[in-house]
Amino acid sequence: MRTVFKTSYDADINLFRDSVQAAWYLALLALALVLPLLLDVFMLGEVTNMLIWAVAGMGLMILVGQSGQASLGHAAFLAIGCYANVLLQERLGLPFIVSFPLAGLIAGFAGVLLAIPTARLHGIYLAIATLAIAILTDDVIVLAEPLTGGVTGLVTPTINIFGLEIDRYVTPDRFYWLVLAVVVLTVLAYRNLLRAPLGRAFAAVRDSEVSAQAMGVNVPRTKATAFGISTAITGLAGALMGHFAGVFNNETFSIIISIQLLLMIVIGGLGSIHGAFFGAIVVALLPQAIALSRDFVGGLFGTGSMAMPGLDSAVFGAILILFILFEPMGIYGRWVKIRTYFELFPFYRRDMFRRQKSYLKTERLR
Amino acid sequence: MSLLEIDNVTLRFGGVVAVNKVSFSVEEGEVFALVGPNGAGKSTLFNLVSRIYDPVEGDIRFDGKSILDKAPHEMARLGIARTFQNIELFEQATVLQNLLVGRHRHRKSNFVNELLFSPFVRGEERRHRDAVEKVIDFLDLQAYRDKYIAGLPYGVRKVVEMGRALAIEPRLLLLDEPASGLSVEETQDVAFWVEDIKTQMGITVLMVEHDMHLVSAVSDRVLALADGKALALGTAQEVQNHPKVIEAYIGVSDPHQKVVT
Amino acid sequence: MDVLQLVVSGLANGCVYGLIALGFVLIYKATEAVNFAQGDFMMLGAFITVGLTNQAWLGLPFWLSVPLAVFIMGVFGYLLDLIVLRRMFGQSQIAVVILTIALGFVLRFVAGAIWGHETVSLESPIAGKELRFGGVVLGLDEVAVIVVTVLLTIILYFYFNRTKLGIAMQAASQNQLAAYYMGIPVKRVHSLIWALAGAVAAIAGVLFASKGTIDPSAGLLGIKAFAAAVIGGFGSLPGALLGGVIVGLIEPFASRYIAAGYSQIMPYLLLFLILVFRPHGILAQVHRKKV
Fold this sequence. Notes:
Chain A is mainly alpha-helical. Chain A has helices at residues 10-13, 19-38, 41-66, 74-90, 96-118, 123-143, 145-148, 172-195, 197-207, 209-214, 219-245, 255-268, 273-301, 311-326, 330-344, and strands at residues 154-155, 159-161, 164-166, 247-248. Chain A is 70% helix and 3% strand. Helices cover 70% and strands 4% of the residues of chain C. In chain C, the strands form two sheets. Chain C has a two-stranded antiparallel ribbon. In chain C, strands 2-3 form a two-stranded antiparallel ribbon. The mean pLDDT of chain C is 85. Classes of the chains: A mainly alpha, B alpha/beta, C mainly alpha. Chains A and C meet through helix 6, helix 12 and helix 14 of A and helix 4, helix 9 and helix 11 of C. Chain C: This is Amino acid/amide ABC transporter membrane protein 1, HAAT family.
């Protein structure tokens, strides 16, 4: 196991633990940059989809993993970001380079607006309130047909950045690089947040509101900030999703997407950036894996491949149940354990990461 | 002028009078202890000073100004720090991060330059870290710096909580039962720390404590409470021998015995 | 006159929501877990009854298959707690919510794989019959739904407040460890509660399927029932029913008097407003944490 000797406070403040870790991440970034040269168009599309989900996942992760507020309504902010981005381009004629960040700002503003009345709500009640917002947004999109196209939906225009045309089908590699840039910026912002006072204030609100307050943290405002940052990032992901899909309507951002997003970050591992990516890999690649295995099984019994509605989400649900039961820290938790096993070999003990069971004591006083 | 003045404060929960017309003041630079049986209203007084509850009557002044129009999170900025009876630490964070949250009132950056992590934010972070390291040295927490709270033993958690309150650099420190659940040696440490907090750091301490050894060892003045009413004010010795205080702890004749838990 | 029919059909719908909400509240009251799959329990209960009753499947007599379905769902609930949820002891509420959401996905798939994805209706003796009071025509199915729901709520209310097991269930919810020390078999109590919730869901499913049709995604109705539970006040049995009735009544009236599209919106708008202004519902039972 490598031990890092810290010689200044900066060792704890820097982005990377040491130069070795920095080198690993730079290598990963380099690989990501040349990926369009290595993959065919179909696989590149899948990876792009995965990265967009990862951005959305990081958005929700800031809220759930960092500030401890559960949201079942983030599809609403995906939708707001997506519709804002397209409408700003189509109706106001703004270029993508302006409409895209504006879409994020609008989604962030909407998140703050939602956070103000719901600041008093906790846990499951907040989840329900956000769920209601997601359903309402879905319905509002249908009702506001003149603007949103209702159930027919809208078509995304081709992105044009200073004469450079970016289209998911015509120039998939450019679209991939655009998404990658958003991903890198989001990861940077997320990391900065974690090492800054605001990130610690989020953790404080998550773990104990009453003592966060005693430390001088303005709890409602911190929650609203968490909502704003989270929904802004989610809005950006929504805008990218729109461009990825080409055509979208209210169904694109149904309540199921909200739920899937939350389940995704739980599978990945709550509270870590890695978790958002691991979760996104599962969500984006699972349908392909299922399709492949179905063809395989079909070929085995000679039945051919037949469609089974709901199979994707059922498998997804089953995986999630197994994770919650046996690895509540998600894929990232398992990853950390495996890494520790090799680092400490042969001294790893089974109970090293064992968590203390706590007995439930109600907060209801009736 | 006193640092903290509790002026004729009353608080009722439904029909129960938790605090009944209590008045006292804490002078700058002293250690002031609140003692009394369970349910006497000691912690409620703490929660009143931290603005978790609103008094139905009376005024609370800090540094001459009423704090009743302030929000709970503004107390830290005024210079009032506190600990909790049942330890309220940030479980999923390290000791270092917990202490750094205590620096929140000194935060000067806004979220935009924090998301960009500008050089200014880095400079601030170094400064906060420096202040926190002083607390770590003071409380001997070096070994636990990067440990998560969730895995720490009870005694260490109590110390971390005190450290987090000190990181605020308060003028008034509210300690809610700093020695409850601690061993004799750990309690001794707390006594030394409280002494040093008063003399070296110049911080005024208001504490609730059941352990009369600790109270007599560190406090300049003691106020005994029972059933929400103030019974006696004076030195630890005077209060322990006060007839009303003896009466409040029914069933035990020896005044020294009964207050010691 | 048609306002009365609107009220009755709204009430009948509301009672189904109320019954599902009752399942939520039962589990929440006793275990502080939130079962997001309660709607899917209802769907499963309905499909089991369909499988037992309908001629295309087993063709058993209706009055035999209903208790059988209720029993099967009870056992299902019991086993679910025994095998899955017992392991969640001491984990966060949200983890349980996510687990049950995932469970809902799985149940929906299983039901679809067994009974297909087309809508089916239950061949029940109360379906399609009418009751006439003077000039008023009411569906027998709708009246039956209302009567059964009211009876069930009363029984459960007395069960929780009067019987030993009911009070033990309440105690287990207040403080698991203390209840355990007092000799209450907390784990078994939890399993029994899940069994009870399964049974109630089966009854809701039978009622739902006999006044309309059922398909595997009918479980999504659970979300609306969930809204009802919160509107009424989570943790209160009469509140669950009240919330269900409110949601049931709001829908037809909103689509009648505002516009068709708004009937979907109103329950959730109401839910959101209730959460903002009266976070713990109309019949609140929650207080703030003590420091």
